[in-house]
Design goal:
Elements lengths: L1 E2 L2 E2 H20 L5 H7 L4 H11 L8 H9 L3 H9 L19 E3 H15 L4 H20 L6 E4 L22 E5 L4 H10 L5 E7 L4 H8 L6 E8 L2 H5 L1 H5 L8 E7 L16 E6 L2
Helix pairs in contact: 1-3, 2-3, 4-6, 5-7, 6-7, 8-9
Length: 285
């Protein structure tokens, strides 16, 4: 098909080529937040590309960004916040910023929401904990309806838990990096096993026990190259089972990290990984 003597296919190719060139230029400024914010004002295309860069990693969000993120919540979630006494000043964001997120850290979201609520309300500690839990849970629910995530971190050091497993089955299918603690819910681990088959990096914090579902998650991986394990706390018999866990790891690993703290475990299993290029071992003695 032609339009005024120009092939439409060629026009589309040019559009994609222009998009690629602009993306490369703006990506080069990834670590320069000042320049990135200037890029927002150049034109519509640069604005869209820049927003995607600024919003892809939740670890880089400011407290103000989390206020904007809350404004991206669906109406049902906003209604739930209001019913629980949580009133965040609302506006209509230009973009649905949540769809740009590639890197999600539940603990970082929890930390930032605490600061946001502390700044907005004069709350007793118990109320602050409750408000934070409700708000973070609604944010997690929002991310459940997307499959854009590439990196997920969920380390649970306290009794505060968030339900991120009742989601569409493809919610986590595109994950390439996963960090979590062994005390997360078995349901989430089962969900991960059903959906995450192409992890490149897997880091596990051992807290209290080594769940059998973790073995299933490791066994199903097709592309695992990096594995890390930090022993935080646990009964002696659980800690002693760790070398057995490593038997399920692919022999093609190129990076292995063990942070053992005060726990002693045998490292003889490392001889099985003949393709290692990086090895980090740390114990406190």
């Amino acid at each position: 098909m032609k339009c005024q003597g120009i092939d439409i296919g060629i026009m589309i190719f040019w559009d994609y080529e222009i998009l690629d060139y602009n993306s490369v230029i703006i990506e080069y400024l990834n670590d320069d937040k000042y320049s990135l914010h200037s890029c927002l004002l150049v034109n519509r295309l640069w604005c869209q590309i820049t927003v995607g860069i600024l919003w892809r990693d939740c670890n880089n969000y400011s407290i103000s960004d989390y206020r904007t993120l809350i404004n991206c919540l669906p109406d049902e979630s906003k209604k739930n916040l209001k019913e629980n006494g949580i009133i965040i000043s609302t506006s209509h964001p230009i973009f649905n910023y949540a769809i740009f997120c590639k890197v999600l850290s539940i603990s970082k979201v929890h930390e930032k929401i605490i600061h946001l609520l502390e700044n907005q309300y004069n709350l007793l500690l118990e109320d602050l904990i409750n408000y934070t839990h409700v708000t973070v849970q609604e944010i997690c629910k929002m991310y459940m309806n997307q499959n854009s995530l590439k990196v997920l971190e969920y380390v649970q050091y306290s009794d505060v838990t968030y339900d991120i497993y009742p989601s569409p089955r493809d919610f986590l299918k595109n994950l390439t990096e996963l960090t979590f603690s062994s005390n997360i819910s078995p349901e989430l681990l089962i969900n991960l096993t059903q959906t995450c088959h192409n992890l490149f990096l897997l880091d596990v914090v051992i807290i209290y026990h080594v769940p059998k579902e973790l073995v299933d998650l490791i066994t199903i991986q097709k592309n695992l190259k990096c594995f890390g394990m930090m022993i935080h706390d646990g009964p002696k018999d659980e800690i002693n089972s760790i070398p057995l866990l490593t038997m399920e790891l692919p022999k093609t690993l190129t990076r292995f990290v063990v942070v053992g703290g005060n726990y002693k475990i045998s490292l003889s299993f490392l001889v099985n990984f003949t393709n290692l290029q990086e090895l980090e071992i740390s114990f406190d003695f």
